[in-house]
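User: quick one - fold this with adenosine-5'-triphosphate bound?
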Amino acid sequence: MKTINDLLGKTLFTWPGHISDRFTIGDSCEGIQIFGSTGSGKTSGSGRKIAKAFLKKGYGGLVLCAKPDERKSWEAYAKQTGRAKDLVVFELGKGSFNPILYEQKRFGKGAGETFNITNLIMTLNLLARNFSAAGGEEGKSEKFWDNAVKRAITRMVDLLKLSGEDLTIMNMREVIVNALTKEDVERFNDITKILEDEQAGDEDRKIAFADLRTWARQNFCLKCLLDVLSKDDLTEGQKDSSNLVKSFFFKEFAYLSERTKSIIVESFLGLIQPFESDLLRDQFSKDISDDLWPELAYEEGKIIILDFPVKEHLLAGVYAQGIYKYIFQQAMERRRVNQEENPTPCFLWVDESHLFTNPVYDSLFQSTARSSLTSTVLLTQGINSYYSVMGSLHSTAKTKSLLMNLTTKIFHASNDYDTNEYASNLIGKEFKEMASVQRKNIEVGMATLSEHLHPKVFPHELTMLEKGGEKSNGYKAEAIIFKSPGRKWSSGDTYIRCKFDQNE
Ligand SMILES: Nc1ncnc2c1ncn2[C@@H]1O[C@H](COP(=O)(O)OP(=O)(O)OP(=O)(O)O)[C@@H](O)[C@H]1O
Ligand SMILES: [Mg+2]
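Assistant: Sure. Structure tokens for the protein plus adenosine-5'-triphosphate:
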């Protein structure tokens, strides 16, 4: 019987010009980062080689589209590798994927739990900040407001669940915009006092009851609260969340200062605003098309293309794809590779990856991706693209932590100082002999030879790599490949140079 290790050891390809240096399925599952300036050949050089190798080997996967031509490229790759039948294109006007419904219906531990649904919605926050280039998360004041919004979302989710209403973004919106004010709570207490007062006359009670019903018809939040109050068959766990919900809507939130309350409401409304766009309202808020379950990537080797290019759909495109990416990663993590008979490796393909970066979760996912047999391939121009979306705190550490877990790094031609320094430092230094000649006036003295530690690849050398699209070099995009840790290239060095044929 073949073991997972046999599978991980299988060759995907040998690196161009290095016939003894294999790139295996195992290598791919340890993640790949492709850097290079625009036009250097990331997509049409190394990217294309890796993508086609995945398809040839039967990988399932997910492709995010930052640019409008991404889908066309993948359709061509699939055709050339005999995989066209496995493509599933999720595009404008075709297909539906409601992430919240997925979170409730999916298999596995934690399905439908409020905590997971809240986290899902909070990932929108990170995506929105990346897109506005304000950076991922935190900073003391952001953290405070994030927590406040998160608590409000948690209580809204529980309120909808307990009341039996549909758990949708638009219902959450109705809850928060109608949340009871201090005056509302006082009015509510007055009404209930009459209803509970045994001394009150029937007529008074009738009026109070009618008043409450009319009010609840106009106020969705109150309607849900009344539904919860009327439930007498709650489990112990539901009773706990019911108490928290009641305390939140009848006390905490209602008695917040106007300013605090409006910041929470505005933050939430801002967060979900893209769901008012046609794309998210029509295709990400209803049900789940049969062919869009992310598990199909490993169950049937499907390749799901999210054809909602950010260049066309802007923030709605980022939300749509970013949230699907997050769900796809979690689905891969839940996978039990050891129990599958012929496990299918999968890939997650993210060009312009900084647009979809989740500063915390991506690293976490990547650190266990090998055991879920998933290869993440990220393409972006330089390391600064990540720094700018990793939040105001520890952005360098977070970027390096993500990169540390993407063990194959491909550096195409780059004019970015920081990326080139990073590459040079990774590749390391070596002793090189240097001759020096002492000179006194015009008299030449002794020549000495000494050893000095020098970078194996100087940063400026990355600016000189051959870019793609050049007829003069036969349309070959040059790159330096580094694999850590402990990779031994056949040359004995810590890196190799390759030229990727753009027309292969
Ligand atoms: N099949 C091909 N044959 C020849 N040239 C090509 C081919 N595909 C792309 N090119 C050219 O090669 C260059 C590199 O293109 P590519 O799209 O791979 O760059 P990139 O690094 O992905 O850039 P970006 O960051 O803008 O996405 C471009 O000038 C492009 O026009
Ligand atoms: Mg590209």
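One thing worth noting: The chain has 21 helices and 13 strands.
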